[in-house]
Every structure is written in structure tokens, then in C-alpha cells.
């Protein structure tokens, strides 16, 4: 297929298949604990955009072993990425972060550390820690930009501006840390042009990876209230796939595409219900990519 997949990148980098283990550092988020707000981003479920990790009371080593045991039938002699996904995983004193991240990085079967966080939660001491750990094993930092459109950022209550995002990207890149940016496709009121502007902006920053995520409406979120009031509609599968391919064609060829759709918790999903059948969606994406002759970077400048 005509895009740079995460699987290909992992094989090229580590010479073998590598799997993510979702770990729980037990942190919250400034948009939830009252610092910036208490209701979170408008689309974020109570699980903090990551509902699959083990309880935080277990040590990181215990969590790694538990997560490995869950996939033991499928994976023999695996290599793993320690993935801190839910909430804001740098929202804690640096001493605590050093303890949990170091435990993960020095585990013999862990080949990389992946930390999902916000750009406004990366103070100098945390950047220094991540930079140091990056000398031991590759460190990836995932940042949830979602959109560059100011009205959309205000609607979703993202809580930081583009200058803050750009400062964080520059500081991480300066330390050789890989940056992966989350983008949501299908935010209320966004046109195809708006979404392509976001993708092109991220492409210009020369980040290492992108996660393209379909907008999900999950139970218990404020987004669900707006959806129930019929203030917006979600994308059809066909609309999403066309948009997704357009976005890939506007991203530089060397940007790794970490995600092509979403995998929100099914028990919370309200819309779009077609997204629950991930296998069917991925097959449809593959087929449409072939039909369209999808080429990542088709619409980027020649330097890519
Ligand atoms: S920053 Fe992340 S964890 Fe915090 S409310 Fe937004 S999506 Fe949820």
C-alpha cells in the first residue's frame, strides 16, 4: 500500500514485529482535575482516551508482565513498546516520572518508551528526563493536537494554543525524541479544507509520526450531548475513507502513519457505529487505497 505504516517502520527499525503494551502511570489531566477544567476535552471519555491499561497500583514491571500474559497465545519471543496512553503521562513530579519510565525503559523486552501527553505539560526537567532516557532506548512522545482551526480547538476545549504546541515539538526534536501527533478527522463544523490545513501544518513541522483518528462519540462525554441534540453528524465510512486518503496524500512520505482509524472502547461507542468493525474498516481502506492508487506525499513539495 502507498503509505508508511507503523508495522513497516517497526520492522525496519527493530528487525522484528513489535507490540505495544498499554501501561498505567496513574496520572490525571489538567483538563480534568480542575486546573484547566473538570470535564476534559469534549470527546474524552472518563478513561482519559485510553481505556485498556492495567490498574496503576501494580508496579510497571508487574503491569508489563500482565500485559504480556494477555497476548502470550499470539506472541512468542516478542519485543514490546511500553505505552503510557491514558490521560496526561507527564502530569506528575519528575521524580515519580523518572521512577516509572526508568523501570519501563530498562526492562529487557522493552525496545521503546511511548508517552502520550499534552504540550503544556512538558516542563524543562521532564524534557531533560525524556532526553536522557532517549539515550538508552528510543522515546516517543504523542501530542494530541487534533486540529489547527482555532474555533474547533475552543469547541473541543483543547486548552493550549499552537505556539505552545510548536514550542513542545521543537524542544522534543532538539533532544532527538520522536514526536507523534494526533489529528481528529470529522470534528463538528470542519470542512475537508480545514482538515487538510491541519495535516499540511503537521507535515511542515517534520514530526516523525501521525495518528489519524476518526471522531468518535462516546457515552458520558459532552460531545454525546451535542450529538443527541443533533448539533452535528458523524462521517459515513465512505466519507471518512476518502478524507483519510486525501490526508495521507498531503503528508510527507517519511512520516509514519501510526493509526488509520480509531479504536475507542466499543461499550462506550454511540457513533459512528460502523467504526466498531475495525477489520471491515481497515479492509475497506485498503481496497479504496488500491482503487485510488494512494501515494503518501503525492501533494507535498519535492524535498519530501
Ligand atoms: S488532554 Fe487527553 S486525557 Fe486530557 S481531557 Fe483531553 S483527551 Fe482527555
Kindly state the number of beta strands.
Answer: 9
Radius of gyration: 19 Å
Share of helical residues? 25-40%
Distance between the termini: 18 Å
H and E string: HEHEHEHEHHEHEEHHEEH
Task: Quickly count the helices.
Answer: 10
As a percent range, the share of strand residues is 15-25%
Mean model confidence by pLDDT = 94
Question: Spans of 5+ residues with little confidence (pLDDT < 50)?
Answer: none
- Biggest sheet, in brief? 7 strands, parallel
> Structural class, please?
alpha/beta
Strand order of the largest sheet: 1-2-3-4-5-6-8
The global form is globular
Bound molecules: iron/sulfur cluster
Can you describe what's shown?
The protein is an alpha/beta fold and 304 residues long. The protein contains 10 helices and 9 strands. The protein has helices spanning 6-14, 60-70, 94-105, 124-136, 150-156, 162-174, 192-204, 222-228, 237-249, 278-292, and strands at residues 18-23, 79-84, 110-117, 139-146, 178-185, 209-214, 217-218, 256-259, 269-271. Helix 7 (192-204) runs parallel beside helix 9 and helix 9 crosses helix 10. The longest helix is centred in the C-terminal third of the chain and has 15 residues, at 278-292. It is globular. The model has no long low-confidence stretch (mean pLDDT 94).
Task: Name a few traits of the molecule.
304 residues, 7-stranded parallel β-sheet, two-stranded antiparallel sheet, single chain, binds iron/sulfur cluster
Short synopsis of the structure:
The protein is of the alpha/beta class and 304 residues long. It is built from ten helices and nine strands. Helices cover 37% and strands 17% of the residues.
Amino acid at each position: 500500500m502507498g503509505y508508511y505504516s507503523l508495522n513497516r517502520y517497526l520492522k525496519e527499525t527493530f528487525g522484528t514485529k513489535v507490540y505495544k503494551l498499554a501501561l498505567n502511570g496513574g496520572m490525571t489531566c489538567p483538563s480534568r482535575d480542575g486546573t484547566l477544567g473538570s470535564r476534559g476535552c469534549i470527546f474524552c471519555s472518563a478513561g482519559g482516551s485510553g481505556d485498556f491499561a492495567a490498574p496503576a497500583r501494580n508496579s510497571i514491571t508487574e503491569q508489563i508482565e500482565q500485559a504480556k500474559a494477555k497476548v502470550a497465545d499470539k506472541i512468542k519471543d516478542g519485543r514490546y513498546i511500553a505505552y503510557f496512553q491514558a490521560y496526561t503521562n507527564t502530569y506528575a513530579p519528575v521524580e515519580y516520572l523518572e521512577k516509572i519510565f526508568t523501570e519501563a525503559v530498562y526492562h529487557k523486552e522493552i525496545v521503546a518508551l511511548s508517552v502520550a501527553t499534552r504540550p503544556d505539560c512538558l516542563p524543562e526537567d521532564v524534557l531533560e528526563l525524556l532526553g536522557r532516557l532517549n539515550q538508552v532506548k528510543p522515546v516517543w512522545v504523542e501530542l494530541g493536537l487534533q486540529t489547527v482551526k482555532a474555533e474547533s480547538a475552543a469547541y473541543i476545549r483543547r486548552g493550549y494554543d499552537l505556539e505552545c504546541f510548536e514550542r513542545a515539538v521543537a524542544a522534543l526534536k532538539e533532544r532527538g525524541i520522536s514526536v507523534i501527533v494526533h489529528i481528529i478527522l470529522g470534528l463538528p463544523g470542519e470542512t475537508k479544507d480545514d482538515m487538510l490545513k491541519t495535516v499540511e501544518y503537521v507535515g511542515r513541522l517534520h514530526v516523525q509520526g501521525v495518528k489519524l483518528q476518526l471522531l468518535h462519540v462516546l457515552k458520558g462525554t459532552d460531545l454525546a450531548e451535542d450529538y443527541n441534540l443533533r448539533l452535528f453528524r458523524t462521517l459515513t465510512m465512505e466519507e471518512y475513507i476518502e478524507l483519510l486518503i486525501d490526508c495521507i496524500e498531503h503528508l510527507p512520505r517519511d512520516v509514519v502513519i501510526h493509526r488509520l482509524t480509531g479504536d475507542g472502547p466499543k461499550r462506550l461507542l454511540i457513533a459512528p457505529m460502523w467504526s466498531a468493525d475495525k477489520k471491515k474498516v481497515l479492509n475497506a481502506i485498503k481496497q479504496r487505497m488500491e482503487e485510488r492508487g494512494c501515494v503518501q506525499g503525492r501533494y507535498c513539495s519535492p524535498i519530501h
